[in-house]
Amino acid sequence: MATIHDVALKAGVSVTTVSRVMNNRGYISERTRSKVFQTMEELNYHPNEIARSLLRKRSNVIGLIIPAVSHPFFAELANHVEYYAYQSGCKVLLCNSQLDPVKEKEYIDMLKRNMVDGIVMGSHTLEVDAYRNLHSPIVTIDRRIDEDIPYISSDNYAGGRLAAELLISKGCRKIAHICGNLTLNLLANNRSMAFRDVMLEHGIENVVIQTDMNVFDHDQYGRIIGKLLREHEDIDGIFATSDIIAAYALKGCTQAGKRVPEDIRIIGYDGIGAVSWFEPEISSIRQPISEIGRLAVELIRKQRDGEPFERENILPVELMERSTT
């Protein structure tokens, strides 16, 4: 196997020059640069990335831990994190925890062994001590787990108010709210808090239904909505805390013979691209998913490079009204 010394000897340059070419440091003539790269190709030389990481004290790799890559919100988030990481010269290691604390801990250990520059935590498990004890750059999405760890969230309370007030303004007088399990310590719970506040302020009858602990188990959504429509036939509005739940609500209403939006109005949350695929198109509170991804990469970089950063990052949401309201 060829070494950096073999490359230097064959190219007729010093080892230092080869190192500078590989790391793009210092002035190197284009002729010398081309000669070094040509020699590396001829010798099939590949730098030892682990050794280079030790020398640079950085790997240019960011770990991203999410609960379910199949979920459209996290799929879009992963896409944006990867895009902005690549733009900044980094790669992404994607870890799909599937809400399994043991699996998530194994991923954390793997990322530590690979000396990643930082970890973006988008998981929803209750196990957070492993993150607190990392002693390396970390950013959490929609979770506040430590005074020193920066987090990113959309303005969930404002989003909840926008959704609830829209349904009321459309004449809804008995509104159901379908949300994730509120025992999970997530900032997304503020959507439900806002809903309850608005209902109380306006004296509107309402029903709040939580999913089980596995909030990404799509099979339960159909059962929840079917039971809701059977037990509360006079429901005329639904606020779902994800667009996926809203899509299931639309399907359930159609199966129950209810017209949307004539008989019942529906609004979701997230603003994923798929909401425009349905007929009627689903109204939603849009999170700035692209900006969340960009900011996550930036916060990792700032921590890595010792730059000042904001710990609390609350981003504005936007009401996207479509046909279901």
UniProtKB/TrEMBL annotation:
GO terms for molecular function: DNA-binding transcription factor activity; transcription cis-regulatory region binding. It comes from the Bacteria. PROSITE patterns: HTH_LACI_1, HTH_LACI_2. Pfam families: LacI, Peripla_BP_3. Residues 2-56 form the HTH lacI-type domain. Keywords: DNA-binding, Repressor, Transcription, Transcription regulation. This is LacI family transcriptional regulator. It comes from Paenibacillus albidus.
